[in-house]
Structure formats: structure tokens, C-alpha cells
Amino acid sequence: MSLDVAPATRGTQRAEMVLRAVAEAEHRRRRRERAGVWLGTAGLGIAILLFWQYGLGHLVNPRYVSDPLSIGLRIGELVADGEITRHIAVTLTEAGIGFLIGAGLGLLSAFALSQTARGYEVFEPFLIGFYSIPKIALAPLFILWFGLGYTPKIIMAALLVYFIVFVNTATGIREVSPGLIQVCRVFGASRRDLLVKVVLPSAAPAMIASIRITCTRAIEGAVLSEFVASTQGLGYLVARASRAFDIETVFAGIVVIAAAVMTANALLRLLETRVTPWQPARIHG
């Protein structure tokens, strides 16, 4: 028996070595790809900043555009006196609450309508009709109805989030294979088992990806409402500076908004890769 075991053991060890070598090679390849992406992103960013600093003034009237160095100094001044921090806190609070409300309602309504045979088809025409309304037309109404406080900004952010999360979650649920569901039922799966172990994992990529991209929509909705009428927030800061022809503050506010969106998107993308690493999702909106 010992003569038979030894070759089998050596074969197992060789297989393990091959698998480790393949895994290490794949790890190195992915690391090189990530490094290439980071280098490309950094190079493109530097090129844009250099063009902005030294070339944009030749294409656009310098009176109407600021340069990165001046914008950076202005952001430093706003940070030093605490003004920008206050506006950032207001906008992110409005966007964060609206994001949670819109995403939660979108997920709940999508799963609720998926329990009926024709629920989504009945609801879809009204959804498309309401979604087609320009949101800038709704902002003044919300402000008239709910005042200048947080409420209209939260509602606008929630609306921009809700539709995208609802449509993509409902689409992900409807794309679950009916044959798979029938097989699970044959094997005795309950409705709860189907929802938790089949439907939810299948729809998860679309759900997570739509939640990620709607983070930017939430900030967009809050800033949009602040542009229309507000007394605080990043949108108010940019609108006030534009009325005063303070170009550096306008660009400083825009840069801060873009940085907030990019940071939130990066964090949610990291969450997406951790939760659903196995497949990409097609997102509408």
C-alpha cells in the first residue's frame, strides 16, 4: 500500500504547486492591471490640470475661467474660515437622507411588485410618465410646498434615486430564469427560500450597481434644489458666487462637488466588488 500512496501523494503535491503558481500569476497580472489603471488615471489627471492651467485661457476669455492654482488657494481659504465645511455638511446630509429614502423605497416597491403577475406592467406607464418630467421644473414646486429647509432637497434627491433603483431592481428580478424557479419549487423551496436564495442573489448585481450610480444622482438632486432657492449648501455657494461674478469661488464649489461625488462613487464601487464580484450588471438611468 505504501508504494501506491507515495505516487498519489506526490501527484497531489504537484497539483497543489501548479494551482499555487497559477494563482500567483493571476494575482501578479491583476496587480499589473491595477497599476496600469492608476498610472493612466494619474497621467490623464495631470494632463488635464496642465492644460487647464496653461492652455484653457487661450481658448476661453480668462475673465470667465480660473486656473487650478487659484482654485486650490480659494478652497484653502474657504476651509480655513470653515465656510466650505458647513456647506459640504448640509449638502451631504440632504443627499444622504434622500439617497437612503429613495434607495429603500425603490428596493421595497420593486420586490413588492415582483410578487404580482402584472404589477410592474400596470405601474410602468405611470413611472415613465413621471420620470420624463424635467426635475428642474419640480424643484420650485417643492420649495413652494415645503419651504427653504432640508425637506425639498431631500425629496428631490430621493426622487432621482428612486426611479433608477426601482427600474434596475425590477429588471434584475424579472430576468431570473423561470426554469430555475420551477426547479426550486419542485424540490420544495418555499416562497421565502426562492426570494432569499434565488431571486435576491440573481438581482444583486443590478441592485448594487444601481445604488452605486444613484449616489451621484442624490448629490445632483440636492445641489439642483440649492441652486433654485436655498440659504446654505454647495449649490447655494456656487449660485451666490456666480451672481457676484466670483469665478474662483464658483470653480472651487464645482471642484468640491466633483470630489465629493468621486469619493462616494469610489467607496460604493469598492462595496460593489466585495458584494458581487462574480458578474457585471447592465444599469439603466
Automatic annotation (TrEMBL):
Residue ranges of the TM segments: 35-54, 95-114, 126-148, 154-173, 194-213, 250-268
Major site of localization recorded for this protein: membrane
Domain ABC transmembrane type-1: 88-268
Compartments in which it is found: Cell membrane
Superkingdom: Bacteria
PROSITE patterns: ABC_TM1
Keyword Coiled coil: no
CDD domains named in the record: TM_PBP2
Keywords assigned: Cell membrane, Membrane, Transmembrane, Transmembrane helix, Transport
Membrane topology field: Multi-pass membrane protein
PANTHER family cross-referenced by the UniProt entry: ABC TRANSPORTER PERMEASE PROTEIN HI_0355-RELATED, ALKANE SULFONATE ABC TRANSPORTER-RELATED, MEMBRANE SUBUNIT
UniProt record similarity statement: Belongs to the binding-protein-dependent transport system permease family.
Name of the protein: ABC transporter permease
Species in which this protein is naturally found: Pseudonocardia aurantiaca
Upper classification of the organism: Bacteria, Bacillati, Actinomycetota, Actinomycetes, Pseudonocardiales
